[in-house]
Sequence to fold (702 residues):
Amino acid sequence: MSRTPTAPPTPSTTARRTRATGRVTLADVAREAGVSPITVSRALRGERAVAQELCERVQAAATALGYVPDPAARALASSRSSHVAVLIPKLSNTLFVELLDAVQNTLVPAGYQTLIGVTHYDAGEEEAVLRSFLAHRPAGLIVTGSDRSEAANAMIEGSGVPCVRVMEVGEEEGGHSVGFSQRDAGRAITQQLLDSGRSRIAYVAAQLDPRTLERGEGYEAALVQAGLADRVNKVLSAEPSSMALGGALLERVLREAPGTDAIFFCNDDLAQGALLAALRLGIEVPGKLAVAGFNDLPGSDQMVPPLTTVATPRREIGEQAAQMLMKLMRGQPVDTPHLDLGFQVVRRASS
Amino acid sequence: MSRTPTAPPTPSTTARRTRATGRVTLADVAREAGVSPITVSRALRGERAVAQELCERVQAAATALGYVPDPAARALASSRSSHVAVLIPKLSNTLFVELLDAVQNTLVPAGYQTLIGVTHYDAGEEEAVLRSFLAHRPAGLIVTGSDRSEAANAMIEGSGVPCVRVMEVGEEEGGHSVGFSQRDAGRAITQQLLDSGRSRIAYVAAQLDPRTLERGEGYEAALVQAGLADRVNKVLSAEPSSMALGGALLERVLREAPGTDAIFFCNDDLAQGALLAALRLGIEVPGKLAVAGFNDLPGSDQMVPPLTTVATPRREIGEQAAQMLMKLMRGQPVDTPHLDLGFQVVRRASS
DNA sequence: CTGAAAGCGCTTACAG
DNA sequence: CTGAAAGCGCTTACAG
Fold:
């Protein structure tokens, strides 16, 4: 008995023009199971009725051969890939990363691949990313918010690819969305500051994306309702949000409106930066100034003092959006096309 | 003249078995340009020599028809997709997100799509992700570190897909890598603490991935070389890294080793949490205790006091790894298969 | 419930 | 430098 391992059949000896990829294909499984390739295809996808017994035989053959379907072939034949494209504005905002993580955790186990597109809050970039992604014939699409160009909307519409919008809930926009009311959340945290006795409240925002502006509207509505319309003080910066900017904006507010007794920052990174700046400058929080943020990002509960903020359910949004999208991709009915997951005001020591 | 828009030709009236996808194909472009499909394919990919004049005619036809190549067809025919799979341990660590962002920024403009796989520091998950990704026949692969299972290595090897390892530089591992010496960096920051007069230095680490342990080795080497082998104090926690954990570990160190005059945390999030805890507890930093971190994450420069740390070039790593991978994917030579991008000790007020 | 035929839109491998 | 043929590995659309 030779110790030499059995050599695999060498097709290279046969002069042939075929391109042997060495892959185990559907045809191999079909041969092994003694059925036709279409039956294998159907059995493996669980599509249509395939006799129980055949189904099992196919499964066994597939396992025995270590068959892995080829996504490219599948996509080409069906004009639909297993990709789900997710469009977010930035990767530098923890909020979107957590959203993405939740989407992935839901979609990947179901056999979908996530394609991430970063738009940098830019309509042109969003269109470019969308164009490139749609060429891949994604099975589904998740986009952030509802503020995109006509062209982008037309591309989505025209592609026929199921799409779910996240972070905002817009019933008036049609389609499908999962999120919460940014406006109501802005209003609620402002109300919290009012309720705790503050009356000279500033709203400080950066980046100025639509959601940020909606929070500002909520802020304004709360002040107006409290009869403080003349005290509305919005300090807006188009710069990207950061802790350093939060500190700088804190100083600016106190310089421009020294009487300010509370600041609602549109995002926790600004608020965290402001809290640290206050510490450096010796500004007593909440004694002299109350500080509130938005999103309840990592670290906000660790601040000195801990930061009052609005906890937003981005992980749940990601998960529910993915779930809704899966229904759409499978052609199943969606009972709640616009899912409002709410928010929660978290009062901590900074206010 | 009717105001009704011109109806598109309706193939549905013709009884036929073909599946009209309505897509503009290579064949359409070929017809328009008056050449064969293969010539279009070659002209558009810039592959092989195609007569200048034909090339231009093809480009013009493609533009005129708005031709977008079908990635699935391309992948099926060539057994190679335009996907690059990137494997990272976690999305909750800013470090990896920035790495990813840099990779994307480099790869996307070059026409590649990034597929992100999260392994959660788990060998089994890594294998599963790898198996699923390799079925997509990625053009390239970027993986974090070099600590993976035999099975995973075999899959990568066997796939023949070009692969670049990031964050560590391992010449002894063969293949290709871009990163820096975690050990040297750990040693350098420890040396910095020694140089500034500290001698009871603890190393505090969480997560305990290989890179964290290497930093610890550097820490130990520095102490040993300084003749302080008996002062080595490693406090290790397998929990995931977080600011809250940093605070908790600070307390633990001071309880277990009250004489400690400096702590080197394996990651900035731990160090930031420790700094804030020190503030709460009234522990003077750096007066009573020096604190150093690792990575120079966002916010470290904003802390009170600002955090001494090691700035790591993850964005440059991502960019260079992507660049190296592109060369590999195109079959071009790589002059430096193991690229050490170094690190920088950033001394701030916390030490 | 199962299958034979055709086709998805490209590229490879040969020829010339 | 250009092309006709075949094939990549699946699924769709019909039939039965």
Summary: The domain at 23-69 of chain B is CATH 1.10.260.40 (434 Repressor (Amino-terminal Domain)). Residues 267 and 294 of chain B are 4 Å apart (CA to CA).
